[in-house]
Amino acid sequence: MSTLAGAMFLAAPAHAEGWLHDGEVGIGTGLEGGTPEGGKFGFRRARLRVVAGLDLRTDVGESEGMGFRGFVELEDRATFGGEVRYVRWAGRHVGAYAGFIGTLTPETLLGGSVGARFLIPMGRFALFLEPSFSVLPFGGDLPHDGPLVWALFSAGGRLGL
User: Fold this and answer.
1) What is the value of pTM for the model shown?
2) Angle at 107 between CA 156 and CA 46, to 5 degrees
């Protein structure tokens, strides 16, 4: 009994699981599609966007986590938006995600997105490459009779915080 009491009182406190943080900044563009007034679905070049985000995962389950992104489209008119995603890593440098994406101003759009993540590591820093596909069927800035579709490619820097 004294051994048990000694072990309980002299043991070091346990540390709860911690969070791993990764910050990102990059640029992206691609194709934007929809059905304009003419009624025929078509694509055009998507506006250039600056993206910034944060990925969170626990140190116990590093293969999955949550991602939060903000973006600003720079061309034509400034558009601000964001994305919340579930990220699943197949390995240390390859992953996939699914989430919700939307624009907040000047018009509101909301939809879903899927994509892949590829990292080129350089110590704590890494380059990221990200192809993605989004469908935005809800909001006030939709093309005529259909959703807005984005097929985008983003690239930038990622830093383990």
Assistant:
1) 0.81
2) 40
